[in-house]
């Protein structure tokens, strides 16, 4: 810890901020009803990015050793390269998917209330009009594995009769209830290793 004296206060500050955010969210949860309007928000992004960012924050200080490349033995270089491959192999795909989903659904708002038979998609302030009978096909794409950092990244593609394709990503909400709601709309469930939008 002598090499990074500034790291401890930063970690303490991060833990304090997270505790305050989750504490406020827990307390306000008693006074609010379940939301039916979904947008990319901080808590959803934090939920999806927690493990990739934790892996990067634990592993990146070790990767600073690459700056001392001339002083490393062959054994240390092999271990460092294996660790770098492991850290980047687990984190980078999730970060790429997150960036892609964020760019895709940054301005998207999903209004979903199955009890009222309501499913609406807004791009910015503009409602995209469609009903269930306008859906020619619905693709629900999920990850093959449930144990990878990017397993929670999935998407729904709604193919409308007008030829337009609406893409809803897991950055908005958990899409399993939406897929269940649309199960009678020619739903196709596909599994991939990486659910690119």
UniProtKB/TrEMBL annotation:
Entry's transmembrane regions: 6-27, 48-71, 77-97
Domain PH: start-end pairs: 37-180
Stored InterPro entries: PH_40
UniProt keyword annotations, A-Z: Membrane, Transmembrane, Transmembrane helix
This protein's record includes keyword rRNA-binding: no
Protein name: PH domain-containing protein
Organism: Hymenobacter metallicola
